[in-house]
Write a structure and sequence with these properties.
single chain, TIM Barrel, 7-stranded parallel sheet, about 10% strand
Length: about 425
């Protein structure tokens, strides 16, 4: 074979995997036949630079090709592999660390499912945009709808747990009951999956009612406790448009983070396509999170990457405010009325106006582009675990917040 044909054959080798070094060295050999050693080194470095540039440019194209039928999909930009034993608690709503995200990166999380009426549609919405998320499932829901647990996994999402029965004051449970809630939830989600290795060692405390005892319990099991960086308030009796507003405005305020949503709510189902479309338009990127395994090593990070720019204090978990709810306005409902009135009078007009939204009223949902008034959730009923405590008077001895004991068959965590 002539020298010319040998060079042509070598150049055609793919610039991927083990062939990369062979192709580059072959090019260098060709140059060495006519140039000095110094010149061939220059050519080698140039070839390496070209290959690296080609790989960088090819990555977005390959990513677009991964979403059939939607070249403009939001997609999933990258996957982070985390070691729960190194970072036991994340989410700056309660902790001093969060996931090591870059600016304009978002992690989507969904709680309380699966509930087929909404979870399956949410899965379709995510699939249409090739977006991966993390689902924190209630054990009793997984037992009732095991096929939907498997569908979430088959779609490539990460699955963690959210207790067995979603007890409202999880952090105050007796030790035996707390351990049972954790273990039974894990058992039922695992049974639905059919393989313990498919369940991530991730846990989100129901209602974010953390406690030192709860965290110690999870630490002993090697489970990573997830809070969030901001919610969309989609469990409240608000419109889907307000869910979009809360999600995007709070994300814009921080520039990145873990978003808390619920896949059992009709308002979330209606809001999600808009949220994803706006994330794309505003230049945000979706990040998928998976646990480290012996075959899948953790993503190498620097400790500073886990502390976002808005954290200025020590890395100490804070206890949830009594009657904890998300958003500034709601957090004052459990204090005495006189103190609340003084606090409210000092707030901007927009904050004062938002307080009115807590009153019971039909939810507004966009269906077919038309606003429709409908009571789409049990969130407005006194006997619902999803409603905001303090929004309605609760007589002494009322059992509105007793632990749920039967299958959840509505769009909310409703007591039987």
């Amino acid at each position: 074979m002539s020298d010319k044909s040998q060079r042509a054959r070598r150049v055609k080798l793919p610039f991927t995997g083990p062939a990369l070094s062979t192709a580059v060295l072959s090019l260098a050999d060709g140059f060495a036949m006519r140039r000095t050693i110094t010149t061939s080194r220059t050519a080698l470095l140039s070839a390496l630079g070209i290959v690296i540039a080609m790989a960088a440019l090819a990555a977005p194209a390959a990513h677009a090709a991964d979403c059939p039928g939607n070249p403009d999909a939001l997609g999933t930009s990258r996957t982070i592999v985390v070691d729960p034993k190194e970072h036991r608690r994340i989410g700056t709503m309660q902790y001093g660390e969060t996931l090591p995200l870059e600016d304009h990166e978002v992690v989507l999380t969904f709680d309380d499912g699966p509930l087929p009426a909404h979870t399956n549609t949410i899965l379709d919405i995510l699939a249409a945009q090739c977006v991966k998320a993390t689902f924190f499932m209630v054990g009793r829901m997984a037992k009732e709808f095991p096929q939907d647990v498997r569908r979430v996994h088959d779609a490539g999402h990460t699955i963690g747990t959210h207790s067995e029965n979603h007890p409202f004051h999880f952090g105050d449970l007796p030790p035996e009951r707390m351990a049972s809630e954790i273990d039974d939830g894990i058992a039922h989600v695992t049974a639905a999956l059919g393989d313990p290795s498919l369940l991530a060692p991730f846990f989100r405390v129901p209602g974010l009612r953390r406690s030192d005892a709860a965290e110690a319990n999870l630490d002993q099991r090697g489970i990573m406790t997830w809070s969030a960086d901001f919610p969309a308030d989609d469990w409240r009796h608000i419109s889907s448009g307000q869910v979009v507003h809360y999600a995007l405005s709070r994300l814009e305020a921080k520039g990145k983070g873990v978003l808390l949503l619920h896949d059992i709510q009709a308002r979330t189902q209606a809001a999600l396509p808009v949220i994803l479309r706006e994330l794309k338009a505003r230049g945000y990127r979706i990040v998928h999170v998976v646990p480290a395994t012996p075959e899948r090593p953790k993503t190498v990070t620097d400790p500073a990457q886990w502390i976002p720019h808005w954290i200025h204090g020590p890395n100490i978990a804070t206890k949830a405010y009594p009657g904890f709810r998300f958003g500034a306005a709601e957090m004052q409902h459990s204090v005495p009325r006189s103190e609340r009135s003084i606090w409210l009078a000092r707030q901007p007009t927009a904050i004062r106006a938002s307080m009115v939204q807590l009153a019971p009223s039909p939810g507004e949902l966009q269906i077919g582009g038309k606003p429709t008034l409908a009571d789409i959730s049990a969130a407005s009923r006194q006997r619902s675990l999803a409603r905001l405590p303090g929004s309605w008077p609760t007589p002494p001895g009322d059992r509105a917040f007793r632990p749920i004991t039967g299958p959840i068959k509505t769009g909310s965590r409703t007591a039987s």
